[in-house]
């Protein structure tokens, strides 16, 4: 009712409200501008410089030109895209399946499974990674023990030291740490779907697949979109697992853009070059997110 | 046709079995950390793993506490609590006015917050490090606290929760002559309390586990966090898995306990932060 009652607020009141609002926003803006906006602009700005420990010279787009001729970058880009292309769909599909299998069970059961699948996230990247490193170990690892005692393999495999396997190990661990949040989101989204619609469809003889596809799926589309975007952002930024498990090796087979940025900035101190790669990564992520918006947006039904 | 009320199909049973197997696989790494931390060197370094520590030993923990592990834990707690408190204060104030006030620049500001959230936050870490060095905060706990507070997720979440405050109530309080600060502390805060709870636990866990930020900002022994401590153990004693697991247990058990205690708020926070992104 207040909304309609105040079409012509006096200027004084409006100005006062603006002032008060900014007073409330001030503490937040100090942190946001200081530690998000400023570094963001610094990142963009320094990407046009030959910026190292000793130098700081303007070189225009040269960093960007060099990046696309840098073989290591292209390998890192390929690995990153592989991680994203494999993990985003698997995370989305798997979490949707788990969520639909648990959301209408008893409260305690739902919350038990939700916690279990969230566990790797809470345990923390480092703790999770070190235990996987042990399990993947060539001599004392559980994987080799289980696989050789069941005669799947005849000799121990160096999972993280072998070009063919290392990146798949990374993708698998990333998977376990990525599905927690999507499951929580899907459980809540599925729980919010209007049950009367589903019941009506069932009475009309719709199969459970039809119910899902025609009623639930369009209703959870915004959640799916959000999950796609966050999973994409997180997969593109895959870093900690790589730094702790393989350092990008063997032979760059697990190098990702984020790890290569870190390597460039802190091992060879080429900050300008690293920041230019950061900007490219940000652009790639933005393009992917926009695409997902477009694709899921156009298939959405009202 | 069968009855319409809740029939248990074969699919339900199969699904439950698959879920239980998966749950077992997801719990296993944690089980392996905890049991591994009690295994002696012989059990650890044998090709045949012990599924359960047959001769449990505290040796790994004794060697862990030869190092400043408690200091690491204390630093982590200080970092996470400070980030949590500052985030809750700044985000609840900002979220409230973004949801309930009308002011110049409101739309642009909110879009800016949302856009920033879609950015890869690790990309800004290198310039952030330079900024912290410039401010003289590099290698102090402030360098890992301040960026966490700046991240706009909290504002977004608190705006969602503040939408639920009845406008009529705010109007009534205003007509009664209550000042802005009094309105906020006595009317707004009690209503958005569950939201603050969600944000608090969310920020605490994220800050605790933000390894990349900690790795870049902190070097000295006195400011290491538990995540960095475990990573350090791993690089220095790469095959001493017993010791490393003791570190991993020390780093993860407290946060898991906190998560389980507050998980109701936590799931609420994740869900509220997502809708209509």
Q: Could you characterize the architecture of this molecule?
A:
The complex is a heterodimer of chains A (302) and B (277). Chain A has 2 domains: 2-46, no CATH class; 68-298, MetI-like (MetI-like fold, Orthogonal Bundle). Chain A has 15 helices and 2 strands. In chain A, helix 5 packs across helix 6 (125-135) and helix 10 packs antiparallel against helix 11. Mean pLDDT of chain A is 88; it is low at 1-7. Chain A has helices at 2-5, 11-46, 62-67, 71-102, 107-123, 125-135, 142-149, 166-178, 180-192, 195-203, 208-219, 221-236, 240-245, 257-266, 271-298, and strands at 49-51, 56-58. By secondary structure, chain B is mainly alpha-helical. Chain B folds into 2 domains: 10-57, no CATH class; 68-272, MetI-like (MetI-like fold, Orthogonal Bundle), CATH 1.10.3720. In chain B, 71% of the residues lie in helices and 0% in strands. Chain B contains 14 helices and no strands. Residues 1-5 of chain B have low confidence and may be disordered. Chains A and B meet through helix 2, helix 4, helix 5, helix 6 and helix 9 of A and helix 1, helix 4, helix 5, helix 6 and helix 7 of B.
Secondary structure: elements and pairs:
The complex is a heterodimer of chains A (302) and B (277).
Chain A: H1 2-5, H2 11-46, E1 49-51, E2 56-58, H3 62-67, H4 71-102, H5 107-123, H6 125-135, H7 142-149, H8 166-178, H9 180-192, H10 195-203, H11 208-219, H12 221-236, H13 240-245, H14 257-266, H15 271-298
Helix pairs in contact in A: 4-8, 4-9, 4-12, 4-14, 5-6, 5-9, 9-12, 10-11, 12-15, 14-15
Chain B: H1 10-36, H2 41-44, H3 59-64, H4 69-100, H5 106-117, H6 125-134, H7 142-150, H8 153-162, H9 167-175, H10 180-191, H11 193-209, H12 211-217, H13 226-236, H14 241-272
């Amino acid at each position: 009712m207040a909304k309609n009652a105040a079409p012509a607020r006096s200027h004084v009141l409006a100005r006062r409200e603006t002032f008060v609002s900014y007073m409330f926003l001030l503490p937040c803006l100090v942190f946001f501008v200081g530690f998000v906006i400023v570094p963001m602009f610094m990142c963009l700005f320094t990407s046009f410089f030959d910026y190292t420990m000793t130098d700081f010279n303007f070189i225009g787009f040269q960093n960007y030109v060099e990046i696309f001729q840098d073989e290591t970058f292209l390998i890192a880009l390929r690995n990153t895209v592989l991680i994203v292309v494999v993990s985003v769909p698997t995370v989305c599909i798997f979490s949707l399946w788990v969520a639909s299998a648990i959301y209408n069970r008893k409260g305690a059961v739902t919350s038990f499974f939700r916690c279990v699948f969230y566990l790797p996230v809470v345990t923390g990247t480092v703790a999770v990674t070190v235990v996987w490193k042990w399990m993947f170990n060539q001599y004392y690892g559980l994987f080799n023990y289980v696989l050789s005692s069941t005669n799947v393999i005849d000799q121990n495999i160096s999972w993280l030291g072998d070009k063919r396997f290392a990146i798949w190990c990374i993708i698998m661990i990333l998977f376990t740490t990525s599905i927690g949040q999507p499951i929580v989101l899907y459980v809540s989204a599925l729980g919010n779907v209007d049950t009367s619609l589903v019941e009506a469809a069932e009475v009309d003889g719709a199969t459970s697949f039809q119910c899902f596809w025609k009623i639930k799926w369009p209703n959870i589309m915004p959640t799916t979109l959000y999950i796609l975007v966050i999973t994409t952002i997180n997969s593109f930024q895959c870093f900690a697992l790589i730094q702790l498990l393989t350092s990008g090796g063997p032979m760059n087979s697990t190098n990702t853009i984020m790890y290569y940025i870190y390597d460039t900035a802190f091992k060879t101190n080429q900050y300008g070059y690293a920041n230019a790669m950061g900007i490219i990564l940000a652009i790639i992520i933005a393009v992917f997110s926009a695409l997902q918006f477009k694709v899921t947006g156009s298939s959405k039904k009202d | 046709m069968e009855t319409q009320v809740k029939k248990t199909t074969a699919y339900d049973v199969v699904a439950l079995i698959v879920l239980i197997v998966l749950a077992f696989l997801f719990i296993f790494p944690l089980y392996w950390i905890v049991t591994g931390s009690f295994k002696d060197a012989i059990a650890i370094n044998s090709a045949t793993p012990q599924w359960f520590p047959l001769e449990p030993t505290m040796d790994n923990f004794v060697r862990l506490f030869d190092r400043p592990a408690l200091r690491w834990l204390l630093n982590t707690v200080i970092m996470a609590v400070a980030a949590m408190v500052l985030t809750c204060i700044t985000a609840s104030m900002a979220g409230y006015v973004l949801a309930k006030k009308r002011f110049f620049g409101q739309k642009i500001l909110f879009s800016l917050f949302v856009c920033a959230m879609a950015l890869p936050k690790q990309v800004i870490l290198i310039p952030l490090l330079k900024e912290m060095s410039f401010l003289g905060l590099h290698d102090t706990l402030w360098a890992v606290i301040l960026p966490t507070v700046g991240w706009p997720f909290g504002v977004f979440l608190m705006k969602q929760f503040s939408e639920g405050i009845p406008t009529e109530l705010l109007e009534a309080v205003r007509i009664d002559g209550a000042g802005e600060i009094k309105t906020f502390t006595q009317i707004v805060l009690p209503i958005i309390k569950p939201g603050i709870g969600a944000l608090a636990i969310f920020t605490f866990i994220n800050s605790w586990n933000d390894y990349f930020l900690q790795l870049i900002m902190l070097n000295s022994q006195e400011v290491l966090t538990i995540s960095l401590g475990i990573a350090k153990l791993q690089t220095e004693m790469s095959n001493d898995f017993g010791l490393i697991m003791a570190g991993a247990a020390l780093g993860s058990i407290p946060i898991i306990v906190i998560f389980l205690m507050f998980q109701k708020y936590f799931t609420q926070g994740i869900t509220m932060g997502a809708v209509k992104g």
